[in-house]
Design brief:
The protein has 8 helices and 6 strands. The chain starts with 10 loop residues before the first strand and ends with a strand. With 222 residues, the protein is α/β, with parallel strands linked by helices. Helix 1 runs antiparallel to helix 3. The protein has a 6-stranded mixed sheet with strand order 2-6-1-5-3-4, sandwiched between helices.
């Protein structure tokens, strides 16, 4: 009569997308990537039992999470169509960088990177794999030098500002130009006096991240 009880997730594993590097600066291309990656298959095959498929940037247990957001469907045909609309009917070549370091949000980095590479290649995106030493990897992420990259975040404290501000506003170079619309929303939310107003502002930020795709959420580890 044993029951498994999961502690709520306070982490996110994601595929970072650097919008400063073409053709990743095209929203159509980022949407194609989102529809090309079979996130459910990644979770089923390369993550521990209990890992949740990430539908959005914030974990479900964290206030500011917007329950109206659903993740991008796995749809290779749609991905190919989006690439053609973006002007890349034959795809393109880029890089996917990872560090061979196990983290709660990325328990099998090599297998996950290889699976994402295969998914992207099937729609015409040749994301050549690059393995990098951890310190160098983080330096290059923070300087905005990588194209696609596998990384994640675990909460320092359970507040949405710790995700939005630290990852996407303070560390924005990893994802390309600073999204002033998002970061102004996050700043306004932080200084909002009323809880309902804070919640609405953070949920708006969650929708902004979902629609602009600076990253593709993959996993919430529990």
């Amino acid at each position: 009569n044993l029951k498994v009880l999961w502690r709520p997730s306070m982490s996110i594993g994601y595929l970072g997308i650097n919008r400063a590097h073409g053709p990743l600066d095209s929203l159509l291309v980022r949407e194609a990537i989102a529809h090309a990656v079979n996130v459910q298959s990644l979770i089923d095959n390369y993550y521990p039992l209990g890992t949740q498929v990430a539908q959005q940037f914030l974990p479900p247990a964290l206030w500011g999470h917007d329950p109206s957001i659903t993740g991008y469907t796995y749809d290779p045909e749609l991905a190919r169509s989006l690439l053609a609309q973006a002007g890349y009917p034959n795809g393109f070549t880029t890089t996917l960088t990872y560090r061979n370091v196990v983290r709660q949000y990325l328990m099998n980095p090599v297998a996950v990177a290889e699976a994402i590479h295969a998914d992207l290649l099937s729609v015409g995106i040749d994301a050549q794999l690059v393995t990098m030493e951890s310190g160098l990897f983080l330096d290059k992420v923070n300087r905005g030098e990588l194209d696609l990259f596998l990384l994640g975040w675990g909460a320092d404290y359970p507040h949405p500002d710790n995700f939005f501000y630290d990852v996407l506003c303070k560390g924005y170079l990893a994802f390309g130009p600073r999204d002033d619309v998002l970061c102004n929303q996050v700043s306004a939310a932080y200084f909002e006096s009323f809880p309902a107003g804070q919640l609405a502002a953070y949920q708006a930020a969650a929708r902004r991240v979902h629609t602009t795709l600076p990253l593709l959420p993959i996993a919430h580890a529990r």
